[in-house]
């Protein structure tokens, strides 16, 4: 399932795809990923659901115009509009990493209707970001000018660090590919430079307003966003449940695909 359809939003090209039949489910990716990370799960879930995937502008197959903002505020507004453009009344949403903040902003700050939320190793609570984020934010122009082979090494090392079990060559190629073109290199550092905790600070006071079912899934070996965030997030959302996945890092889709697939199937069956 590839994001091979496009629509235009505020001058941006948004790549997306839809497959299957049944209750709608939207899968939201994070950074520095794209919808391709969700593709096997989308295909499996499409047997019982109408599944939507999309690439945020600045990522994957969507446009990477340097004049377009790619921060979490913009992505949240876009996602709220996407739900309306797709004609979805109350989709179930599964979100990973940045996709969590995007989804929560769309729902809590822009009124996007959802039936349930499954939040997988998400960016939602401060603090987040890494020393690498800070370094890039302070020197983004320098990083954009790195020689291509040096940039490749930076991207591959950074992305590999999100997996606890280690990445297969094919998976590393899938994750790094969009960032290795000239356009992709600039976009890679631009989206990191746009990272700002104020975008989650704005939504944190509203977490207690969530009234739909929420399930939180987290890898116990996530070094990017430690698993204590799962319990903190559950404590902020009334009725939220938590599942910890042993032996999985931040790239839980690749570290524990069978466990995650079973977890998603079980959760969506419970809220269908």
Automatic annotation (TrEMBL):
* Coiled-coil stretches: none
Query: Hydrolase: present as a keyword of the record?
Result: yes
- Keywords assigned: Hydrolase
Hydrolase recorded as keyword: yes
Signal peptide span per the entry? none
InterPro entries, sorted: AB_hydrolase_1 (IPR000073), AB_hydrolase_fold (IPR029058), AB_hydrolase_sf (IPR050266)
Q: Where do the AB hydrolase-1 domain residues begin and end?
A: 23-257
Q: Name one Pfam family in it.
A: Abhydrolase_1
GO MF terms listed in the record are: hydrolase activity
Q: What is this protein called?
A: Alpha/beta fold hydrolase
**Source taxonomy:** Bacteria, Bacillati, Actinomycetota, Actinomycetes, Micrococcales
